[in-house]
Amino acid sequence: MNRVKIVYLDDELVNLQSFLAAFRRKYHVFTTHDQQEAIRIIKEEKPEIIITDQRMPLVTGVEFLYMAEQLLPESVKILTSAYSDISAIIDAVNKGHIYNYIKKPWDINDVSLILENAVKYYQANRTIRDQLIKLEKTNEELNRFVYSASHDLRSPITTIKGILQMAREDVSDPISLQYFNMIDESIARLDNFIRSIVQYYQNGKDVFDFQIIDFKKFIESILRELSFEIEQFNVAIHINVISNAVFVTDTFRLRIILGNLISNAIKFRKKNDKNPTIEIDVFTDKNEAKIIIKDNGQGIMKEYQDKVFNMFFRVMPEISGNGIGLYLVKEAVEKLDGTVELNSEYQEGTTISLNLPNKYYLLEN
C-alpha cells in the first residue's frame, strides 16, 4: 500500500527537520521553505495532506491554503502558527479549506494524532467521492432507461394500437373482435405501466418547473387526455374553480396528481352506473390551493384505506391498474410540501382533499 504523502511548508528550517525526522518512516514527507516549490510539489505529487505555517514571507498560510484548495481541493489542509492568531484561524475555517490547527511549539504525540485523524478524514471523503461517482453513473443509466421507456418502448405500442384498429375494421367476427379487445386492454395496461415508471423516476428528481396555473384550463387539458374513457362510460365531470390569488406550482407534479386522481375516479366507478359523476372543486388564495375531487363510485372499504397510497397496492385486482397511481400522487404532493387526505364510504364514493402551498414567491425572486 502506498504511503500517504504530506507536504509541509515552513520558513523555519528546524521545524522542517524535526517534522521530517519524526514522520518520514510512516509517511512520504516533502518539506520546503519556498512557497513556489510547495506549489510545484502539490501539482506533481498530489499529496493527501498539506501543512503550512501561518507567518510566511510572501503570503500568509491562509492565503497559501486557499491557492492549494484551487489546485487540490480533495487534500486535507492543516495550519500551524507560533502565535495565537485567532483571526487567521477563523479566516481559514470560513474559507472552508482548513481541517485542523497546530499551535507551535507542537508536541509530536499531538501532531501524530492529528495526522492519523487527517488520513482517516481523507479516506472517508475519498470513499464518499467514489460513491458519488458511482451514483452519477447510475443516474446516467437511469436517464437512458427512462428515455428508452418513454420512446423506444412506447413507440412499438403506438404502432400495435394502429395495426389493431385497422384489423378491427376488416373483421366482423364477434369472437375475433373480443380477442382484439382483450389485446387492446393488455396494451393499455402496459402503456400505463410504462408511463408510471417514467413518472416515478422523474418525480424523484429535484427538478421543478414552477409556473402560474390556470386551474380550469389545466384540468380541461387532463380531461382531453381522458376523453375516450369519459365518453365511453358517460362520466359527468363538474369543475368549480374559485381563484382569489395567482397560484404557482410545479406543472409536472400537478399533472401527476390530478391525472391519476381523475383517472382513478373514472376507473373505479360503480358497475352498471349510468350516471357516474366526478366533482372537482378548487379554491386558491395567496397561501395555498385546496383541491377536492369527489366521485360517486365504488368507494374503498375501511380496512384498505390506510394502504391505498402504498406502492403496488391494488384494492381490486380484477380492475386494470398497476398499483402505482396513488403512490405517485402521495410522492408528488410531498415533493410540493403539500398534504393529501382520503375519505371514502364503500359503495358511496370517495373524496380526495389536497392542500398545495402557493409557490408564487419563487417567481417574485
Q: Can you walk through the features of this model?
A:
- Pfam families: HATPase_c, HisKA, Response_reg.
- The chain is an alpha/beta fold and 365 residues long.
- The chain contains 11 helices and 12 strands.
- Strands 2-1-3-4-5 form a 5-stranded parallel sheet, with helices on both faces.
- Strand 4, helix 4 (86-94) and strand 5 form a beta-alpha-beta unit.
- Helix 5 packs antiparallel against helix 6 (174-204).
- It is elongated and about 100 Å long.
Concise account of the structure shown:
This protein is of the alpha/beta class and 365 residues long.
Keywords:
365 residues, alpha/beta, Rossmann fold, Heat Shock Protein 90, 5-stranded parallel β-sheet, elongated, HisK_dim/P_sf, ATP binding, Sig_transdc_His_kin-like_C
